[in-house]
Amino acid sequence: MIVRIMGEGQVALAESHLAELNKLDEELLAEMDNGDGPGFRATLQALLAKVHELGEPLPDDSLEPSDLILPSPDATIDEVRELLSDDGLIPGV
Amino acid sequence: MDAGPVLWVLSQTCELESVRRGRAKPMSGVMKRMGMIFRAKANKALDRAEDPRETLDYSYQKQLELLQKVRRGVADVATSRKRLELQLNQLQSQSSKLEDQGRKALALGREDLAREALSRRAALQQQVTDLETQHATLQGEEEKLTLAAQRLQAKVDAFRTKKETIKATYTAAQAQTRIGEAFSGISEEMGDVGLAIQRAEDKTAQLQARAGAIDELLASGALDDPSGTHKDDLQAELDRLSGGTDVELELQRMKAELAGGPSAGQQAIEGGTGQADPRTQQQPQDTPRFDKQ
Questions:
Q1: Nearest-angstrom CA–CA distance, A32 and B244
Q2: Is there a contact between B23 and A92 if contact means CB atoms under 8 Å apart?
Q3: By CB count within 10 A, which of B27, B46, B70, B270 is most buried?
Q4: What CA dihedral angle connects A70, A71, A76 and A80, to 10 degrees?
Q5: Which residues in chain A touch residue B40, judged by CB atoms under 8 angstroms apart?
Q6: Is the interface score ipTM higher than 0.95?
Q7: Any idea where the PspA-associated domain is (chain A) (predicted)?
Q8: Within a domain: residue A93?
Q9: Euclidean distance between CA atoms B192 and B221, whole angstroms
Q10: Domain of A47?
Q11: Over 80: is that where the pLDDT of B218 sits?
Q12: A24 within a domain of the structure (yes/no)
C-alpha cells in the first residue's frame, strides 16, 4: 500500500498496518468535523509519525499512484477542510 | 463547486483496493478522502481525451510546464531569502552600532543618550528576531521546493519513457488500461507540487510585503542607513560631543608636547604657542556643559 505525504513524497508500507492507520485516520476526520484544532494537530502528527516509522520511501522516479494521501505536517484544519470540500484547490492536471 | 456529486461518482470507480476487498469502509477518513480526490482529478482528465495516447502527450507538456514553474518557484524563494539576509545584516550592523553609541554616550557621561540608544536597539532586536523566524520559514520552503523539483524531474523522465513505450506498443484501446496507472501517479505528483508552489508563493508574498516595509524604514533613516549618508539624531549628538572632546584632547596633547616635549625639535617651536595654554585647557570642561543645555 502506498501513502503520499503531501509536500514530502510517497512511502510504501504493508497492508497489515492499514487497521492501525485507519483508526487514527477516522479520529482525524472526526476532529476535523468537530473543529477540534489541537486534537487534529496531535492526531495528524501521530499519523505522520506512524507512516514515517512503518513506511519505506519510494524512489523518485516511481509513477505509482497512492492509496492514501496525508496532508503535509504543517497543514491546518482549515486547509485540510478546504482540500476535502473543494477539488478546485488542487491544481488541475 | 461541482466537487461533491462528481467526486462521489468518480470515487466509486477508484476506491482503495482494500475497500474493494471489503476490509475497510469507504470515505471514513481524511487520508482516504484525499486519495480519492486526487484520483478523481486524474480520472477526469483521462476521460476527457478520445484517444488516451493523446492524453500522454498533453500531460507531458503540462509536466514540463510545471517543472519550469517549480524551478521558478525555487528561484523566487531564494531571491526573497537573500533579500531577508541583506536586511538582517543591515539591522544587525545597525544594532551593534547602537550598542557602540550607547557605550560611547555612557563614557561621555550622557546616560540619557545611552538609554535612548539602548531602547532603539531593543526595538531593532525585535525586528531581527522576527526576520530570523521568517528566514527559517523561507529556507524550509526553499528546501521543500528544491526536493519537489528533483522528484518531479525524476518522474517526468520516467513518464516520458513509459509514454514512448506505450505509444509504440499499444493500440488506443489497449493503451487505455496501461496509461491509467502511470497517469494517475504523475498527476497526483503534479497536484501535490502545484499546491506546494501555491503555498510557497503565498508565503513569499506575505514576507515580501514585510520586507518592503523594512526597506522603507531603512531608507527613511528611522533605522539608520548603513551607507552612512543619512545621519541619525543620536549619532549627530554623539559626534558633536565626542568630536569636540577629541579635538580638545588632541590640542592638549600637542600643547603638552610643545611645552615639555622630549625632543629638541619640539622645544624649538615651543616659544610662541605656549602662551595659549591656560585658556584652551578650560575648553574640555566647557564643551560638554554647553552640549547639555
A1: 69
A2: no
A3: B70
A4: -90
A5: 87
A6: no
A7: 1-92
A8: no
A9: 44
A10: 1-84
A11: no
A12: yes
